[in-house]
């Protein structure tokens, strides 16, 4: 560190009150921005839970489907046609629907029911208790142990219940990578059982899960499915479609964006005003430096350095506090849908750099206008 930067740091630390105020202001802004964006990314991630948990490479669906939760049933012949498309290794049906579970104490609980292909059980979750073949027993269901598991009374294997006036029995306890967004328990069963036991429309097939023979066959499969009047998406494309729906076609994205901008404005206003007051308080010192020969570029570098030191300290403390709160929330609140990713960290960093740049600009403008002789006249 050269002498000019060492002097800039001493000036910054010399006024501890304003230094602490600057760091706290930026810390608070980063903390709020991180919380808002972590909630947003967490909700988006949980909304795509079925896509992530099932793990299919391609999904065939009605063109009007936007999310895996809102499916439009397709006729059975679509499955036969998809299976006959060159490049398709195999294709299986998937049912996603809602069921009303009546527990042993007489209470009712809505649940998501996923019906897996009877022959392959493609997309089945990993089991904590029970075996995959148990799903073929009479009235068998796998129950996912996630944040909503206790809403079913935290059942164990061989626990009985009713679902849509049909008898059900817990044949296994499963775990998944991502829990449900809407707080509904998830039940897995066979495709035939799901479509027979649950009330449905004329068509019952929600999606077709496709495995292409190679990545080069994907485009051909998509064109062939489009000729049928349906849509074939890769898992990434379906996830992006789901994300776009929640970001731009619901109020969630707009509301969180507004809260993030408010946090940014709060941090910018606190940092900008406090840094300007800091420059005014040290105006004579900067003027003296200019009078003894300090160049404008050196004074500018001092201001930029001071602004960056404060900004990065505030950024570090803000990320630390937000990460700690999110981790604590996940420990204490099972369905807390927030996640810290590199995306919201870089987003917060970009906003902090903007705050730093604006604060430095305000200070630089004032410093460059100093008449050094005013210092000696005073």
How does this model look, in words?
This protein is an alpha+beta fold and 378 residues long. It has two domains: 3-47 and 251-368, no CATH class; 75-229, no CATH class. The protein contains twelve helices and ten strands. The protein has a six-stranded mixed barrel with strand order 2-3-8-5-7-6. α8 runs parallel beside α11. The longest helix is centred in the C-terminal third of the chain and has 37 residues, at 296-332.
The run of helices and strands is HHHEHEEEEEEEHEHEHHHHHH
Give the amount of beta strand, in percent: 15-25%
Structural class by secondary-structure content: alpha+beta
Largest sheet: 6 strands, mixed, barrel
Q: Mean of the pLDDT scores?
A: 85
Number of strands: 10
Net shape:
elongated
Count of discrete domains: 2
What Rg do the Cα atoms give? Answer: 29 Å
Features:
378 residues; alpha+beta; six-stranded mixed barrel; 17% strand
Describe the secondary structure blueprint for this structure:
Blueprint: H1 3-14, H2 16-47, H3 49-54, E1 58-61, H4 77-83, E2 88-102, E3 108-116, E4 126-129, E5 140-144, E6 160-163, E7 166-175, E8 186-190, H5 191-197, E9 207-212, H6 218-227, E10 231-234, H7 235-248, H8 251-281, H9 283-291, H10 296-332, H11 342-368, H12 372-377
Parallel strand pairs: 3-8, 5-7
Antiparallel strand pairs: 1-9, 1-10, 2-3, 2-6, 2-9, 4-7, 5-8, 6-7
Provide a short characterization of the protein structure.
This protein has 378 residues and is an alpha+beta fold. It has helices spanning 3-14, 16-47, 49-54, 77-83, 191-197, 218-227, 235-248, 251-281, 283-291, 296-332, 342-368, 372-377; strands at residues 58-61, 88-102, 108-116, 126-129, 140-144, 160-163, 166-175, 186-190, 207-212, 231-234. It is built from 12 helices and 10 strands.
């Amino acid at each position: 560190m050269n002498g000019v930067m060492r002097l800039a740091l001493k000036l910054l630390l010399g006024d501890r009150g304003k230094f602490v105020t600057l760091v706290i202001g930026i810390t608070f802004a980063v903390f709020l921005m991180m919380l808002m964006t972590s909630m947003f990314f967490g909700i988006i991630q949980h909304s795509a839970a079925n896509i992530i948990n099932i793990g299919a490479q391609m999904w065939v669906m009605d063109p009007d489907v936007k999310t895996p939760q809102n499916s439009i049933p397709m006729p059975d012949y679509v499955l036969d046609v998809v299976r006959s498309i060159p490049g398709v290794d195999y294709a299986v049906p998937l049912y996603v629907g809602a069921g009303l579970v009546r527990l042993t104490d007489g209470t009712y609980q809505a649940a998501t029911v996923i019906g897996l292909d009877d022959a392959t059980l493609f997309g089945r979750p990993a089991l904590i208790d029970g075996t995959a073949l148990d799903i073929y027993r009479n009235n068998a269901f796998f129950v996912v142990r996630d944040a909503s598991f206790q809403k079913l009374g935290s059942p164990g294997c061989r626990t009985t219940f009713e679902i849509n006036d049909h008898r059900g029995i817990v044949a296994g306890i499963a775990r998944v990578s991502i829990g449900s967004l809407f707080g509904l328990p998830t039940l897995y069963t066979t495709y035939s059982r799901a479509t027979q036991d649950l009330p449905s429309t004329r068509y019952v097939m929600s999606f077709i899960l496709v495995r292409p023979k190679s990545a080069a066959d994907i485009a051909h499969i998509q064109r062939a499915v489009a000729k049928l009047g349906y849509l074939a998406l890769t898992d990434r494309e379906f996830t992006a479609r789901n994300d776009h729906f929640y970001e731009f076609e619901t109020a969630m994205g707009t509301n969180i964006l507004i809260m993030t901008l408010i946090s940014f404005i709060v941090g910018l206003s606190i940092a900008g005003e406090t840094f300007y007051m800091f420059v005014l308080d040290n105006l004579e010192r900067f003027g003296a430096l200019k009078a003894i020969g300090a160049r404008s570029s050196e004074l500018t570098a001092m201001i930029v350095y001071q602004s960056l030191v404060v900004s990065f300290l505030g950024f570090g403390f803000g990320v630390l506090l937000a990460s700690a709160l999110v981790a604590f929330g996940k420990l204490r609140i099972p369905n807390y849908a927030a996640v810290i990713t590199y995306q919201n960290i870089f987003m917060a960093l970009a906003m902090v750099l903007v705050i730093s740049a604006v604060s430095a600009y305000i200070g630089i403008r004032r410093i460059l206008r100093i008449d050094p002789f005013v210092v000696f006249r005073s």
